[in-house]
Amino acid sequence: MHGKRSGSLSRSVSGSIVAAIAVGVLILPSSAYADHPEPGSSQGGTPGPAAPADVRITTELPGKITVDNTTEKTTVTATVANGGTKDSGPVTLSVVGFDGMKITAVEGCVPIPEGRLPQGSNSGYACVIDNIAAGKHRSYEVAATFDLQKTGKICLPVTEGTSEKLIWQQGPVPFGTSQPTPNAPDTPLLLGTDNVPFGPEKPPAADDLPRTGPAGSTLPLALAALALFALGGTGIWWTTRRAGRP
Predict the structure, then answer these.
(1) Does the keyword Transmembrane helix apply (predicted)?
(2) CA dihedral over 101, 215, 20, 133, signed as positive or negative
């Protein structure tokens, strides 16, 4: 009886995960996207080997973000634009965090399972876009945390459809400050600046502790399989980037 209940619970959890991923890849109406922010920067960006001649995809990040010194929460506007003369067709924008910067949510986008994250990253979301017309853009509000005791970076790769073909990548590019403000309510961080860590050292969070046992080793693979099923192969690019990682 216990085994039967356990199997039912596993199917329920798996079903919930699949449903959540499926909802995440629905194409949202234009009102669901963030308004275009003040002019941002493509610093650290470069076209990929699969960039089409008539479709000029780029991304932008704000020149400055603000981190709450108590909660370490911050928001970032990530923009993907088409400066070419033809529509882009389907593309996938991913938002990936490194080191002290962790991506916690991107509206309308799907969490990238741990087993599909790029080497060295700690979090990420994939945003499936049906099309970006010539001269148009899409902007997304990104929720993140930034550990001010560390350096932190963000990366915005764009791939063709749900394939592994990289057409643009910005970063990993740092946010940081050389003038910490520990006694202020928040700390402004500048794009392209390596952060000068400050503050008392904290114990590692539960998510950062080493994982042991079957659950720690098999769950990411299960999540990755579900994500691939829902996204139709989005995870291929991440697998390529993590070649050789256990």
Answers:
(1) yes
(2) positive
